[in-house]
Amino acid sequence: MSMMRRLAIAAISLGSVSFGSLSFSSLGVAVAQDVGSAPQTGPKIIIPNPSSVAEPVSGGGPAPDVAGGPGYPRQPTIISSAFPDYGWLPLKYASNAAKMETFDAISPPLAWTAPPAGTVSVTLIMIDMETSSGGNPQDGLLWAVINLPPSTRLLAENTTRGRTAMLPAGAFQLSFLTNGYIGPLPGARIQAHHYLFELYTLDRMLDVPRDVTLDQLKAAIKGHQTGQRGVLVVKCCADSK
C-alpha cells in the first residue's frame, strides 16, 4: 500500500426513481466503478462482459460460487444516471484522483433491478482492478455496502458516511477501513485504472467485521449466491471530465 494511502487511512476516523427505461420504487444499491484504460505494463486486466450471461432457468441446483456461472438466474441489471456501463466516471465522484483532497467524497447514484427469489441480503463491492491482486489485503477494495435488504433498489448520490449513514438496519459501508465512500485514490488521474462494481444477491446476512478485507468478503460470499452477480464497469480518470 502506498504512503499516501496509509496516511489517508490513518487520518480517517471510523466513525418512484427512474434511470432510462428502468424504474425503481424503493431504496437500493448497486453499481460498478472502473478507472480508465488498462495500464501499458503489468498484469492483463480482464473486464467481464455483462451481456454474456446465461438466460434464467427454473429448478433447483447447488449455489453458484463467487463468480456465478451459467444455469443460474440472470444477474440483476446495475445502472447509474451519472455514467454508462464501460463509460468514464465523472470527476465529481473522483475528487481524490489527482491528490488526497477529502475524506468525504461524493458517491455516484446507483440502482438495480429486483434480485432472484430467495435472496436474503445484497452486498455491493467496488474493486480497483489494477490493485485487487496486490499483496496488501485492503488494496483493491475501494468501497463495499454490505447486508442490504433484498427490497433495496437505489443508492442515492452522496450516500452519507459515518455510523449514522442512512442505510437500512443491519447494513454498513466501508472504504479503506473508513465508513464512507472515498473513490479513486491519488494516481488514477494520471494513469487510469479500471473499477468494477459487483452486486451479490445472497441467501443469508454476512457475518463479517467492519474492517473486512476483500479476500474475507469473497470467502463469506462463496456458496451463498442466489444468482449470478450483477456487474457494472466504469473507467477513471485520465479522460474523465
In short:
The protein is mainly beta and 241 residues long. The protein contains 2 helices and 11 strands. The strands form 3 sheets. Strands 4-11-10-6-7-9 form a 6-stranded mixed sheet, with no helix packed on it. A 3-stranded antiparallel sheet has the order 3-5-8, with no helix packed on it. Strands 1-2 form a two-stranded antiparallel sheet.
The structure class reads mainly beta
- Sum up the overall morphology in one term: globular
CATH superfamily: PEBP-like
The figure for the number of domains is: 1
Tally of contiguous helical segments: 2
Order of helices and strands: HEEEEEEEEEEHE
Strand order of the largest sheet: 4-11-10-6-7-9
Spans of at least 5 consecutive residues with low confidence: 1-69
The largest sheet, given as strand count, sense and whether it forms a barrel, is: 6 strands, mixed
What's the CATH C level?
Answer: Alpha Beta
CATH topology tier name: Phosphatidylethanolamine-binding Protein
Radius of gyration: 17 Å
- The N- to C-terminal Cα distance equals 27 Å
